[in-house]
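Researcher: Go.
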Amino acid sequence: MRNEVDISGKLDWVTVLLYILLVALGWINIFAAVYDETANQTIWDLSLNSGRQLIFIAASVVFIFAIIIIDMRFYETFAYLFYGVILFVLLLIPIIGKEVGGNKSWIGVGSFGVQPSEFAKFITALAVAKFIGSVGFKMDNLKNQLILLTLMVIPMGLILLQKDFGTAIVFASLLLVYYREGMSPFLLIVGISMAVIAILTLIVENQLYLYGVILVILGLIIFFWQENPAKDFNLVGWSVNNYSNDSKFRLHH
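Model: Structure:
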């Protein structure tokens, strides 16, 4: 029997409309940045950035409809394959890529360019979702935690080799997902601290200030660890002990 699904009824139309509005405003701003009153220019002109961007917008619309229509089991089945392919492409970027804005993270296709690191974001999230959703997965397993961190760190490191720090740091947001699934908050704090230190190395000229910030962060980590010693806190999650009424209550996130 044919199973008809009303896709439109499952969409968050408020989010869709906000997305369309943001894309439209961005497109207009791209044209405004290169607009010349003395020239006969239109926003549709393919020789301008706005015209080329329109092609990407149209392609994105096609991809969006394809993603919605394709059965979700397709993504689940090929998640690791997509992940392997994008890692291979990221490995090739330092060799065949072209430099744009100081970052060698683009592949040139004629007058157009494609940035594989943008695709790596959602493909990595797809691989992470595939692993977390696998049968028998438990976040309190150290091996599983190491695999999840590896899934995040490998594309992040390859993108850092392209000198694209801004895109690489986005992958650190996966730590929030891991924490939500039960990974220790201690690892989340360490990850955020590393990101803060990395950013400060780019914007702080006086290294004494930087060393001071590092010491403060290390102090907070040590304090946090002392407040949650090994008997009640471990790398796989929280353990809360309550000995009221001669009973032991143990809560695992």
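Model: The CA atoms of residues 22 and 108 lie 26 Å apart.
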